[in-house]
User: What shape does this take?
Amino acid sequence: MKRLIFLVPVVLFAALIAVFAHGLTQDPSRIPSVMIDRPLPTFELAGLDGKPGFASSDVAGEPHLLNLFASWCAACPQEHPMLFQIAASGVPVFGIDWKDDPAAAAKWLAQLGNPYRRIAADPTARTGIDLGVTGVPETFVVDKHGRIRYKQTGPITAADWSGTLQPMLAKLRSEA
Amino acid sequence: MAAEIGHFALILALVLALFQATVPLYGAARGDLALMAAGRAAATLQAGFIVTAFAALAFAFVRLDFSLAVVAANTHSTQPLVYRFAGVWGNHEGSMLLWVLILGLFGAGVAWYGDNLRASFQARVLAVQGMIGAAFLAFLLFTSNPFARLSPVPADGAELNPLLQDPGLVIHPPLLYLGYVGFSVAFAFAAAALIEGRVDAAWARWVRPWVLAAWVCLTCGITLGSVWAYYTLGWGGWWFWDPVENASLMPWLLGTALLHSALVLERRGALIGWTILLAILTFSLSLIGTFLVRSGILTSVHSFAVDPKRGVFILAIIVGATGGALALFAARAPAMQSGALFGRVSRETGLVLNNLFLLALTSVVFLGTFYPVIMEAFSTDKISVGPPYYALTFAPLAVPLLVLVVFGPMLMWKRDSVSGVVRRLRAPLVTTGVALAAGLALAGGKVAAAGGLALAVWLVMGAAAILVRRWSGSDTLRKVRTTPMSVYGLALAHAGLGVLVAGVTAVTVWQTSKILVMQPGQTIAIGPAHLRLNGMREALGPNYVTLIASFTLDRQGLRPLTSERRFYPASRTQTTQAGIASFLAGNSYVAVGELQGTGIVVRAYDHPLVGWIWAGAVMMAAGGMASLADRRFRVGAARPAAARLAVA
Assistant: This one.
């Protein structure tokens, strides 16, 4: 009986290791957004360069992507070609220029091209806060009822698109 | 070229570590003195090669050799020299090399200064250290090679995280690692004792200086980290219950327990199995701390490196070290009997209670830290555990422990009586009672504040009582002269705890803050001070641009105070440098935010007695150092006959 007490530490330790090993299989960068399955927060934002912006009510009706970017963001140019490819495939991409100087953003878009159907400027990050944005780039998948279905943190890679976003959008389109 | 020398030196160190892990063990089993001595040579050589590797990496950092991946990822050519050098351990690969360097130096230390150890025992200690060294060298070489080259060579590197470009980085990690890795010596001693199947009072005397040294370093390291967070994170918090802070607090708590239980083993030959278990667990928690930071299993502000492959490797090391040692413990410890008995009221009992409370505190921190991981194993929720949990669990366990701290040193070994100890503690009891009553009357219903301050008085008076009791009666001068350093250490460390409690209480209960937009020329009142904003100007640092707001603080006379908002263009990062004026009664703390119109966002705080927290911690570390300087660790004084305690 007394010997068994000395076994307690090693048994507890084994249980702990099992939990740690499980923890290692999880992706630490995955932080689920509280916005999933919630309607888009209402906003009405002006556009860049005097062009019209858009409001949250303008974008419902069709599944689409809502992409947040900024001219000062280092990862955004990396994502840019992917956005062109997505737009070419027929998925509307709406852009929100986050915490940015509108003139700098216009120049940036003139240089890299504009894949967005519409662009809204959010210089004060007010809408970004409502959306729970932690940084740019970030992309939301919004269904035709205007509900957020998925949040991508960081640039969309080819693998993200073909593995996650494209199948999800295809499913949303087929939903009645 | 230097990088190749460093890389090759690491490979040789690994080979030597493997040799050290096996040959002395075989030699000890066979009773072959030559093979046992080979372990000492291997430990020395291994340390030499690791020093070479570390020097090579430091050279590459200082010389800005961007062909090395770690240099390119952590050094920008504009970075000041001292941060280029400290950058060596400001990243994953380099910090692991520092870990291995300290491990190697400790191994060499056991080889050189362990002459008074039994040859077979020393050989086994070195073998266990060789195993740990081999595991970490393999980890370094196979998953985190600091000498990996880049091709093509980039023109310039990425900047070291600006938060880390601070004098704190230069000494905080090395001190912390000295603590973590120092406990590896205690672990090796425990494992070797289990392999040999014998533990005695001499064992405790050998291991205690190592534990003390590690504990002192860890105490300093944690204190420094707390100060650093206080002035860089910009709102004056001194402890955040962040997973990585907890990872250093857990080995500290258990290390404190080990320090005290080793005392019982040394003086009375009791608590053998328990002390061995604590030695194993303390180092295991150091390993888990490393695992935590390096695997990304928990999200934390400290996780600069995240890589699951590394996590698996470190987990394997933990399974091997802790699992192996605990299995050995289960097999061997039951046979290690202790003959020493002690009464229900005795110093031994006091120290057992100390250990139980420290263990409970460690468990509370452990649960709080790992609860998110454990929950995630059973559900899909991501949760985090915050300060309310610790306020609810840590404080109720810490308070009784702090009350008990004063009783411990006043109790007699073997057997004592309650009335006896109360009689000896009459002075502290009376003063604490008076302080409590005065506090309750003055604090206006703030019971926690009065209680906390009374506790501080209790601890300081209790520590003073130790010396008073020793010196009282006739011939005081001779008694003062002959008081061992360890007694001074004990009194200093316990008094430091009291000073720390006073600081924590005051800053928790009475701190005040203001956040507002200030215009130049405006004056606000904050705590006992008045703060006037003189103006803002921009300036250029070596690798940043900065907005400096200058203030005049009116507190015990006028003095200038500045707070900065720095922008590092190379990494596009913003940091805040708080302006802090320290007084005995507390700190005035100001941090600036963004410009707003003609004004600027200002956060001003009054932190009463906050400096006492760190002063108390420094006193504790100084107490540990004084104890370390005690004669009995240097002279082979009155060594009790090494009774064979094992009945194999």
Observations:
- Chain B is about 65% helix and 10% strand.
- The radius of gyration of chain B is 26 Å.
- Residues 299-305, 636-648 of chain B have pLDDT under 50 and may be disordered.
